[in-house]
Amino acid sequence: MASKPSIPQGTRDFSPAEVSKRQYIIQTIKTNFEKFGFQPIETPSFENSDTLMGKYGEEGDRLIFKILNSGNFFFNKNKIELPQSLEVLQTNSAETINVDQRIELNKFTSRISEKALRYDLTVPFARYVVQHQNEIEFPFKRYQIQPVWRADRPQKGRFREFFQCDADVVGSKSLWQEVELVQLYDTVFTSLGLEGVTIKINNRKILSGIAEVIGASDKLIDFTVALDKLDKIGEDGVKKEMIEKGISETALVKLQPLFSFSGTFADKIKQLSELLASSEEGMKGVEELKFICDNVAELGLSTAILDLDVTLARGLNYYTGAIFEVAAPKTVSIGSIGGGGRYDDLTGIFGLKNMSGVGISFGLDRIYLVLEELQLFPETVAATSKALFVNYGDKEALYASQAIQKLRQENIKVELYPDNVKVGKQFQYADKRLIPFAVIAGDQEIASNSYSLKNLVTGEQVSVDFEGLKNALLA
Amino acid sequence: MASKPSIPQGTRDFSPAEVSKRQYIIQTIKTNFEKFGFQPIETPSFENSDTLMGKYGEEGDRLIFKILNSGNFFFNKNKIELPQSLEVLQTNSAETINVDQRIELNKFTSRISEKALRYDLTVPFARYVVQHQNEIEFPFKRYQIQPVWRADRPQKGRFREFFQCDADVVGSKSLWQEVELVQLYDTVFTSLGLEGVTIKINNRKILSGIAEVIGASDKLIDFTVALDKLDKIGEDGVKKEMIEKGISETALVKLQPLFSFSGTFADKIKQLSELLASSEEGMKGVEELKFICDNVAELGLSTAILDLDVTLARGLNYYTGAIFEVAAPKTVSIGSIGGGGRYDDLTGIFGLKNMSGVGISFGLDRIYLVLEELQLFPETVAATSKALFVNYGDKEALYASQAIQKLRQENIKVELYPDNVKVGKQFQYADKRLIPFAVIAGDQEIASNSYSLKNLVTGEQVSVDFEGLKNALLA
């Protein structure tokens, strides 16, 4: 093999420094998940195709990575029927494929592939809950931190393999969980040193209520998709899009208060209550929002800001109650670093009805970028050794190894340079590895049962006994 | 969907208790890897097919999970040629397929699949080293703990998705690394409370030397495969197999000392030196073994036993120097719980020559079974809450939440039962979750700013203020 090997588009190798930083974020999230009573589960990387297919819409189905049946996939129980129109298919491009051809192609695909890589953690979680319902004590507070795979077109910041970090509660409709999830976001981001994130909150019932009172209930999706763009395209842009989608001028007039929606939380609740007075569902949403925000305010947040944002929609079809999204502090321009909400029928797709769930997710890759940009990673995050013992030959290496063994028993990370090469090369290795100390032990040190400890940053060198060495490296 | 959902054959869901136990093992391994100066890397779950194919033999190629090209895989740059003999293939079974048909099938497979799930961590590591050679400071001590996938026929204890935990050093031939890897095994298993494991050691050069002196160099593989079975089929069985493979009676006579190979380490070295006196390679192997074992003995092991086992071969084609295998204490009957060795040309497959490597691996699933059987998991391993706050309604839940918030700031895991349901049901939840305490706070407690703390094991209940609550839960 002549050319340098490479990895598939949209995937990544992580270097030691990168793994350490990612692990620092994951560990912080995990510790706080557990502090809030969430328990870990893990599910297989691939699921049966029928568990995943049809759960993410047509686009999602296309983006699911399918695994070829193993062994000689042609020898299944039955003969595989090749697509009749295969010849035609091959002369066409993907774009011009017609519905019949797609059905035929999908049929063929499903014959040679029965498993697929998971696309998110939510559907496998729903599958897990239904499959293990008799072993689970509800309400079930689970967290899950595992990679997912999507055959998205790779681009900056979008990967084909990435981690999701989810915490969900299933089996209870209590709004105290929404209160706790807001606190959990606050606690995690505060622990990471990322102060001042904005936790935006909205409620699906409020969006439905607004659509109802402006007489656009039948256009709920179009309405919310347009409203969600207020940040990006402004008031005029949103109005233009709504009109294009068939929402009336009269409706837009009723909607006007939303475009100048501001003030304190109490002000916003008041405006919403007036706007939604005639909608039972809308008022239910207002009440839920008020319960969550009042209790969060009563308890107080450490550094995060809770903000009512009526334009927030996210995956609207999915959420039925609260909707959350977290934005990084204003100095960093990046999309949301977390999101979630309540979904009243999580497990219905697998035949278990009436299981309300609520959950939040942390965007590992974006949080990484934010911490990097704001230089919030602790200096100690890298998993590097505290000292390198210089190798002067076998006798000296044994003397060094005796000290190394005792230091490791004190949980101090130290290592021996494996080869007896020029000292300059050994120091260079320590330098590149960011190891702060070198320990030198030759004939003289062995004779006096001591060690020369060199600070590789200042160049300072001292002679110490083992206790002195241990204390210097523990410091 | 009427029937209960399921997961693919050979894969597993992990419950909270299982994840916690697995994480405990992984964390112990990780901490010790880092203490010994190893740094973490991570590679993508799938690699380009040509990175993996042809690296594990024909059997391995068949067991690699292939990923179907995403989108409409029929529409690649070029037209896909279907196997000419597809009709014939479909009427045959997998076993009767001939070479030409297999080639044709493989060609077709490679047209519809260009990526594959990683089969082990070694080949991706070699690929990583070659791809990033200019960023790496050698010797490179890396560890990697990630899942791998194999399309093996699922059976008890053999899975299609499982974790590997590997530590390797690449770029140095120093035998001090073998010394340290033996210490690392000892340290990890001692940390896990698994005392008395046997670390078997051998050397490829000794096996080659033996084959040489008995005049069977051309039958090295057959010879070692047979010798490796001494444990299972006994002396007579091994001899019978060797004769079947064409090894002469005269050779077997020379081999005789190996069948009664015993005594102290020094005795064994003496016997080997006599047997191998005429083989330069064999004597080099003896010298290497002696260096490693002498230095390990000089430094001492905590609880593990190092044992020279001349029958140990493992993947012989792979290793060029030391060979390691770890056996659980005799009371547990299970295969090896770890293994490794030195391979002089790790990265040659990707065009980077002369990179000697040495590494060891820990078998997570088997270690789990051993710890379970010997009841060595600490009781505190489960990620469960320390106390459940009983929910008596919104006013009481707010009072509870205020205490919960402060307790979590002290890193105490506590949770509020989300719903105001019968107390019995809430206690039952605590019981099933193995939560040891319940905190009761109703009107009376709120009025006196106190909490009733109930020990769910003893039934004992005391009234405490917040400090008392905190101290009781910290204990």
From TrEMBL, chains A, B:
> Would you identify the family this protein belongs to, as annotated?
Belongs to the class-II aminoacyl-tRNA synthetase family.
Task: State the reactions this protein catalyses.
Answer: tRNA(His) + L-histidine + ATP = L-histidyl-tRNA(His) + AMP + diphosphate + H(+)
Keywords linked to the UniProt accession: Aminoacyl-tRNA synthetase, ATP-binding, Cytoplasm, Ligase, Nucleotide-binding, Protein biosynthesis
Residue ranges of every copy of the Aminoacyl-transfer RNA synthetases class-II family profile domain listed in the record: 1-418
| Ranges in coiled-coil conformation | none
Kindly list the places in or outside the cell where this protein is found, as annotated in its UniProt entry: Cytoplasm
Instruction: Indicate what this protein is called per its UniProt record.
Output: Histidine--tRNA ligase
Q: Which HAMAP family match?
A: His_tRNA_synth (MF_00127)
Please give the subunit comment from the record.
Homodimer.
Q: Where is this protein chiefly located?
A: cytoplasm
Enzyme class label? ligase
Q: Which PANTHER family match?
A: HISTIDINE--TRNA LIGASE, HISTIDYL-TRNA SYNTHETASE
> GO molecular function of the protein, one example?
histidine-tRNA ligase activity
Task: Please state the Enzyme Commission number of this protein.
Answer: 6.1.1.21
